[in-house]
């Protein structure tokens, strides 16, 4: 996968489980401080601005490993009395509201996580764009949806970035939805509503694009499926239209070049 990033840091998985990757661009300064099988801890500066600390996690899925992991995260936090952000797959559900389907929420399963939150004094930033970040990719009554991915921050980080927002994007090729953190919030010029263009119907590949996108969403429950289908289809159409415009421009320039060549020969 090409991420168009100049820098990267990898932690290899054990077999097919785990593994972490951190990419960053040239305008971001990152210094890796510590790392382990389930986390990458870094010092971060965006565009040469003030430094803060970030920990990127993949929480252990097995109950017997959770206490040791959250105890380790508590030790990391105690070393940062400043601006600190944690983001990633916590593999923890913290309430029944963060779970749909499957077995009911059991507070005992999140005890170590609650202890960590209280001891570290962290804020669980709300996510815009959806409630559940993970799905078992099954349909109807077999579907299980959970909020496993989250963004936690210290009060100092929250004060430094008061306009920070956390967005959830579409899950494509994964059972987890991507989580995007914008420390300085969203600029109004980037917030564009989707508009369907009637001229798209004249293109032969418009209908297949709509059909494939609409039918690709099968795993959510009935109450969430219609909205998920609309979001997936609008995203696919937006990408399709941009690609179509690019092809049209290239074709126009090609025709113009041929026309100029013919005129030159005459």
From TrEMBL:
Origin superkingdom: Eukaryota
Organism for this UniProt entry: Hibiscus sabdariffa (roselle)
Annotated InterPro entries: Endo/exonu/phosph_ase_sf
Protein name as annotated: Uncharacterized protein
């Amino acid at each position: 996968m090409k991420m168009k990033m100049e820098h990267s840091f990898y932690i290899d998985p054990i077999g097919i489980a785990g593994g972490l990757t951190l990419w960053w661009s040239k305008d971001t300064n990152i210094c890796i401080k510590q790392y382990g099988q389930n986390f990458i801890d870094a010092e971060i500066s965006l565009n040469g601005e003030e430094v803060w600390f970030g920990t990127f996690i993949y929480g252990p899925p097995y109950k017997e490993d959770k206490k040791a992991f959250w105890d380790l995260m508590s030790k990391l936090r105690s070393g940062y009395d400043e601006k600190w952000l944690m983001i990633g797959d916590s593999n923890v559900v913290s309430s029944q509201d963060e779970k749909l389907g499957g077995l009911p929420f059991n507070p005992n399963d999140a005890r170590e996580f609650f202890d960590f939150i209280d001891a570290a004094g962290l804020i669980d930033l709300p996510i815009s764009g959806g409630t559940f970040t993970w799905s078992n990719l099954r349909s109807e009554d077999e579907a299980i949806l959970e909020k496993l991915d989250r963004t936690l921050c210290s009060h100092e980080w929250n004060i430094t970035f008061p306009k920070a927002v956390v967005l959830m994007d579409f899950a494509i090729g994964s059972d987890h939805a991507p989580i995007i953190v914008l420390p300085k919030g969203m600029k109004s010029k980037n917030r564009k509503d989707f508009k369907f263009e009637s001229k798209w119907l004249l293109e032969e590949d418009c209908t297949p694009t709509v059909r494939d996108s609409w039918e690709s969403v099968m795993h959510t429950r009935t109450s969430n499926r219609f909205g998920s289908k609309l979001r997936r289809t609008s995203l696919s159409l937006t990408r399709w239209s941009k690609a179509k415009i690019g092809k049209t421009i290239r074709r126009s320039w090609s025709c113009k070049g041929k026309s100029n060549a013919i005129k030159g020969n005459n």
